[in-house]
Automatic annotation (TrEMBL):
Homodimer. Residues 4-96 form the Stress-response A/B barrel domain. PANTHER family: EXPRESSED PROTEIN (PTHR33178:SF4), PTHR33178. This is Stress-response A/B barrel domain-containing protein. Signal peptide: none annotated. Transmembrane segments: none annotated. It comes from Salix viminalis. InterPro entries: Dabb, Dimeric_a/b-barrel, HS1/DABB1-like. Pfam families: Dabb.
C-alpha cells in the first residue's frame, strides 16, 4: 500500500479570516513528524458549476494509515479541528492510499 493522503476541500463561512485558519493549520502540521507533507491552495480557475462553492483545499501525506490515525486522535488535532469546523460552511474529506503513477521530477 502507498502513502496515505488526507484531502480536505472546504467552503469557509462568510467573514472567516482564512489566513488565520491557514496559519493555525500550518502550525499544527509543523508539530508532527508524522505529517510527511502539507499543501494547501485556493481555487482560482474552476467554474462555479464545477466547484460547487468550494474554495480551498488542504492535503496531507502520511507514510501509513497508523500515522494518520495517530495524528487524527492527537489532542492538538482534536482541539484545532473544533476551530476549523466552526469556520466552514461545507466540507468534503477523502482519505486514501495513493498510487503514484509519475514520480516528482
Amino acid at each position: 500500500m502507498g502513502e496515505i493522503k488526507h484531502l480536505v476541500i472546504v467552503k469557509f463561512k462568510e467573514g472567516v479570516v482564512v489566513e488565520d485558519i491557514v496559519k493555525g493549520m500550518e502550525k499544527l502540521v509543523s508539530e508532527f513528524d508524522l505529517v510527511k507533507s502539507f499543501e494547501w491552495g485556493q481555487d482560482s480557475e474552476g467554474p462555479e458549476m464545477l466547484t460547487q462553492g468550494f474554495t480551498h483545499s488542504f492535503s496531507m501525506t502520511f507514510d501509513k494509515k497508523e500515522d494518520y490515525a495517530e495524528f487524527q486522535s492527537h489532542p492538538n488535532h482534536v482541539e484545532y479541528s473544533a476551530t476549523f469546523s466552526a469556520a466552514i460552511e461545507k466540507i468534503v474529506v477523502l482519505c486514501f492510499p495513493s498510487v503514484r503513477v509519475k514520480p516528482s521530477a
